[in-house]
Amino acid sequence: xxxxxxxxxxxxxxxxxxxxxxxxxxxxxxCIPFYILSFAQMLLPISxxxxxxxxxxLFGLAKTFQYGGLTILGVEGYKRLKSKFKKKKEPAEEE
Length: 95
Hints:
Blueprint: H1 2-17, H2 21-29, H3 31-40, H4 48-85
Helix pairs in contact: 2-4, 3-4
């Protein structure tokens, strides 16, 4: 039974890695609203139990999107994304 779950996990991982860079960026960005919602829901006038359940679900979704996006991007995609956001330093001209 354990081998069955391992093979399913590997198939899902291979499928995610076969998706495009753009898809990975979109999935990765989807985690942002869920992180915001997971903490913003604390301001709602509901019971502590309901807040705990909402936090668990929303934070779990945020982590799922985060790790799914990182799996799609892979190491090379992560480096590519990081270089897009990194500011290029231009040498100062001497006068």
